[in-house]
Amino acid sequence: MLRLLFILATSFYSLTNLSAQQVAYTAHDGQISFASEAPLELIQAKSQKLSGIVDIDKGSFAFSVPIRSLKGFNSPLQQEHFNENYMESDLYPNATFSGKLIDPIDVTKPGLYPIRAKGMLNVHGVKMERIIKGSVQVKPGSLDLKAEFVVLLNDHQIQIPKIVYQKIAEEINVKLQIVLLPKL
Amino acid sequence: MSSFKLSCFQSFKIRISICLVVLAGVNWTLEAQTHFLNQHAWKETWTDLKIQAIHQDQQAVIWVGTDQGLFRYDGFDYHFYDLPGSSGSQSVTSIFESKSGKVWIGYAEGDIGELSNNQLLKWPRKGWPNVPIKGFTEDHAGNLWIATYGAGMWLAMQDKMIAFSTKDGLPSNEIYATIADQRGNIWAATDDGVWFCKFQNNKKSVVKAPAQSGIPSDIIQSLLNDESGNIWIGRYDQSPLKYNSKTLTAKPIMSTWPYGVVKVIEPAASGELWVATESNGLISFNTENDIWKANTFVPSQRKTRISALHCDQEFNLWIGSPDQGLQSTNLLFSFLEASVPNAQAIYSLFDGSFLVGTAKGLFLQSITDENISQIRKIETPLPLNIVSIAQDQYDNIWLGTFGNYVFIYQPSRNKFRQIGTRDGLNNESILSMYTKGNSVWMATLGGVFQIDLDEDPMLQKKIEIKNLHAEKAIGTSFIYQVTGDQLGNIWFATDGKGIASMRDGKIEQYPKALIPNTRTVYSIAVDSKGSVWMGTGRNGLYEFNNNRLIPHGIEQGLRNTEISMLIKDKLDRILIVHPEGIDRYDPASKQFSYYDQESGLKGIQPNINSYTIDNNNNIWIGTQQGLLKYQALQGLSYRPTRPGLELLNVLNMQEPVLGRTSIEFSHQQNFLTFQFQGSWYSNPSLIRYRYRLIGQDKEWRYTRDMEVNYSNLSPGKYEFQLQVATSNQFQNAPQSTYSFVIKPPFYANSWFALLLIVCLGGGVYVLIKQRETTLRRRATLQKERIEFQFNSLKNQINPHFLFNSLNTLTALIEENSSAAVSYVENLSDFYRSILQFGETDLISLKEEMELVRNFIFLVDQRFTGNLHIDIGIDDESGMVPPLALQMLVENAIKHNIISKARPLSVRIFDKDDKLWVTNTLQRKAKPEKSSGIGLQNILSRYRLLEKGQVVVEENETQFTVGIPRIVDFSKK
Questions:
Q1: Looking at residue B572, what DSSP letter applies?
Q2: CB contact, 8 Å: A127 with chain B?
Q3: What angle do CA B781, B786, B790 make, to 5 degrees?
Q4: Of B618, B571, B617, nearest to B593 (Cα)?
Q5: Which terminus of chain B is more solvent-facing, meaning fewer CB atoms within 10 Å of its CB: N or C?
Q6: B124-160: per-residue pLDDT in tens?
Q7: Which of B343-352, B354-363, B429-438, B744-753 is predicted least confidently?
Q8: Is residue A70 within 8 Å of residue A46, measured between CB atoms?
Q9: How far apart are CA B310 and CA B265, in angstroms?
Q10: Chain B contact probe: residue of A100, A154, A170 with most B CBs at under 10 A
Q11: ipTM of the complex
């Protein structure tokens, strides 16, 4: 994963003008959580291992989270089912989202910026172009990024046996929160 | 909460009931209307299809683009159209139809397909990478522009492709949509607003839509134009905008947008926009004077994500979604959910609510601010059976009852006043009322009454009721309906006397409008052209125009003759409401349109004349299921009320021939198949065809199949004529034709006949010529023969021969009298033979040899052993010209010395099919005088007979002549 980020980061770097003004931010502290609100059961899990990079000048970004780092299921068996049956975490270890920021952010002016990011959401090995809404709180020396979105299991070919339909919602609400610091 | 009944698993029809949907934190107004949804299921061979684009072409055919390819939908089945040479999965990302009717298909892998003559072909042009094709448009010059998702815009010039990308100023190469506006700008929808692309004087220009246009710098995902040239702009998560083509400015339809992410937008009619949202289902927005209202909501079933919308020419809205497949709903009809059932009278109030009269009394049917259907019973002084409602100019409501006269109701003060016999109203059943100005007319089972109001009747002590004495004026007192037309005439539908009208207080009955077999008219509608439409209880629909009565019954296409009411819509079409549904007659196109279960109208069981027209010209009809709303939706251009028709394919011996420039086929190519599709998606099962092949069929043939075969057509000129209709009424039906020629085989051509005549003539000429030659030759032969015979005779009778013969005879008589006798016999035989054979062309060799022997006998005596004649013919078959051999022998004797010292030797023999006469050559020094005909004659006779060559050989010792033995007797 780090290698991927490194490649992404270096490619952004090499593509941009090698000016001193380039502003790239990397994840310092990121967490992501999801909730599946099915009629019979609420499933929630969380991971602190959300990593990412945002290049303000280029307006590009990349985020990644290892699926197995999601924790907090109702039972260890549920987590096992989640990883092995639904997400096939061995085959598809990471969920990623990378692309471009549509709305501009002025990092020199602190404030709350609503942003929309368009990119490829890769979950369960199935890529889907998404526009995800979020917000960035620009603070001196850091960016606080927050976003919420919905993932449809059907969109990513995550198969749920009919019998557990009542226990797993067809759409999963995802929340993420990340603090980004300028890249040194 | 929404309550919707799901029965889609058993049937294709899903009745979606929509009530108010309250979702946490979101408040918006939705009218409680239900649309009937038709499910268009795919066959089992196709699974997991995701619909991505829907389009109806100019021939009314519905095309469905899916992630697995393009399909044509005929109302029953889907037909897959394979893209030859496709680069991938054939996932359709866009469908576009040019002004000229050419359909372009954009694919996810960058392929472009063109539909021409019902064949999908890969567009051969190249240049762009394999990125999704998101849209097309056409500029003023007719050049095609292509919007790609990842490679910018492309312009297809005649000779080259011109790319517009970020290098030329576009903010992104990911273009969502493109459209051409009326000024010729080519719009490109991007994440950063709309950009105008232009190619002029070989120069590219890309500029952002100017700020004053009102087009925001937002994520623009869809661009659609409507029939008036306005452009609808769909944004990612904000209100759609309408770009007015006249003011050149865009305005959002809603100032706030609580509906979330927009997936698809579709302008359905003028003043109606449908929006499919990601999480709030399908919403329709209607406008009156540019004030938009969200008023219809189809709930997202288990989060259906609608991916495609298209409104067809019949105002069916087609809805494509990945999990529900293809659905359609007729936008003309919707039910007001949970409204008063079995209405007998409805009256639309100015505030959008209704007064509904039933057998059980009076109800106020309103729609709350939250758009919940709300019913309130209005208590009346008596239990009333209400059959008619009207409103006077003082806002009082007049309730016509069955059995209880009229009640005037003042809503503001909730007061009632009954009018009855003491006011001069002589009948207790008021079937119909009509108000105009300060007058109120009442149609009863006891005549017609008129009231002229000078002041509010609720304040008046005495109300004066005028009896119009219908019994006298019309001839009957049973009046079912009173209504007015645009010219100010008042019309009456009567029982027994047809219709009557009143103008300036004068009532006129129309004897010519009397309908055969029934005189009862329940319902009247007067159109703007002055035609009076009459609905009967059992005998269907009649039109009365210029004193002519025109039936529009079952034969003319009406489906049910039990007409409950006739209503004219705002587009001057007549709605005919009957127990089975609604037929709509368009006098302009003379076509019926039918609406029933496909539009949710099944078993509506309406009561007579229970309808009202609201302020927005919507028609509300009372049914068993509650109030049915009919919207006379109006496209800006004329919408057909006739089915579409397209000749899809013409096959000749299974070869597609439609669209070929040559329509001439050989006589063996005479098996034609015609494939076609009639489109009437409101009710595809009504579609039927009639066809005939001019040149073959004398009569129309009727079918419901979509294919017709003709085999073994004889040569000739043909025209295939095809018509489509939704009833058996084919007058003015759309027609499609295909002309072709089957050429006759070469032997039936006129040039061939000419050739044959020439050949025959030539043949006859040659034959005649030949015959002439033969005849001439025969004549020559005859002449030669006669000459020969004469010469032979002359020869033999010449004195020398006779003298010699007689000398010989004299000697014989002395020496041997018996030999003399035989000599004389021989001599006479010889002469007889000459005479006898002289008549014929040929004699047998045997006869000739007999003659030769006779001759030898005659001459042999004379030369006493000095003449040696040797006959060596083994085979005496065959024929020769008479006297030929004799002549040769005679010649030999005549021209040669015969003496003891030099005897003459003559040999006659056959060899190689010839008969030879050879003699030793010892010419007399003084040849005997000769007529010179001997050998010459033989030569010429053989030439004329054409039976071979006579050979004459002469050397120092021998003279030889060979004549052919003739074995072929054909020339005899």
A1: S
A2: no
A3: 145
A4: B571
A5: N
A6: 998 889 999 999 999 999 999 999 999 999 999 988 9
A7: B744-753
A8: yes
A9: 9
A10: A154
A11: 0.80
